[in-house]
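To assess whether ligand presence alters the predicted conformation, the chain was also submitted together with NDP. Input:
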Amino acid sequence: LFRGFITAAPKETDMEFRVGTAELRIPEGFKGVLVKNLYLSCDPFLRSRMREFYNSYIPPFTPGSVVEGFGISRVVETNDEGFRPGDLVSGLTGWEEYTLITSTDRLRKIQVDEKIPLSHHLGLLGQSQLNHARMPGFTAYAGFYEVCSPKKGERVFVSAACGAVGQLVGQLAKLHGCYVVGSAGTKQKVDLLKNKFGFDDAFNYKEEPDLAGAMKRYFPDGIDIYFDNVGGATLDAALLNMRIRGRIAACGMISQHSLSFKEGIHNLYMLIPKRIRMEGFIQSDYLHLFPQFLDRIGDLYKEERIVYMEDTHQGLESAPATLAGLFSGENVGKQVVCVCRE
Ligand code: NDP
């Protein structure tokens, strides 16, 4: 359960884990489905829903209510003719073992492919037909191809590069023929970026007191594309290193989520002399590309031309701490909670 609104980074104690019993059937008069939750997705946007005044596309949580997020579930009972018992679905569900879902437009049936792990439907192939869906794989795809307007040979910088979105952005950029450098917060992640995800180079931003200087080392001729997942000091330093007519895709600003006073950006004036295009985006603006994305990314994965890494925690009771860990960089890859494998 979500306990109440917060102003700092989420902590395990901001959520309450309760053990209880409930009848496992659809109550009379209820129209919808009863699902058993298998996997839950931990996403940065959940923190935004813990803020009372949140002027955005999705309302805040109600204190005392079950935490709601994306998940993969199996339909147990249904009186909605669009679903059958046994169907595997992805979409908005509760952080609980079983959830009654009225708004079945929140759910999408998963086309199971034995070559793709089921949990990848939360990260790599995250799918939902909701307008406010925020799924990492599609975010990387839409953000890189549509917002960054990449060209072969361009120099690409990705922050939070080892995360759910970042790892795919870097790999797509490599496949596009770009030079790619990522930043991340641990040595383990830096090694993964170079040795598993195929980035040309990577650095630990926490060990770089002069971020702008570090970027200059990796991009002596400047950055054409910055895929920004973090905002704050990293964005400020990137602005100084952008090339003329560079593009910044403002995907997320996780460094700012938990600050009551957002950090100021000092180098925004660089947009003018360098004619930089900086564009914020929400992946759901590009839902028309979703079928194409599923085919292309699914094929790339099955052909082993891309890899996708998940960080899976076992058990519903691990979910609060797992979500909190996103904000201190504990996740190595897409953060998933496995509630039950069946
Ligand atoms: P990640 O899997 O990348 O997890 C978050 C990572 O952010 C952490 O692992 C940590 O990695 C890094 N981080 C946490 N706090 C800070 C900080 N203060 N400063 C710098 N880095 C920090 O998450 P996602 O891939 O799911 O999301 C990445 C970004 O994309 C988020 O900002 C999210 O809000 C945004 N997003 C945007 C969407 C859109 O449609 N525009 C859709 C989905 C996500 P590290 O070790 O590198 O510090």
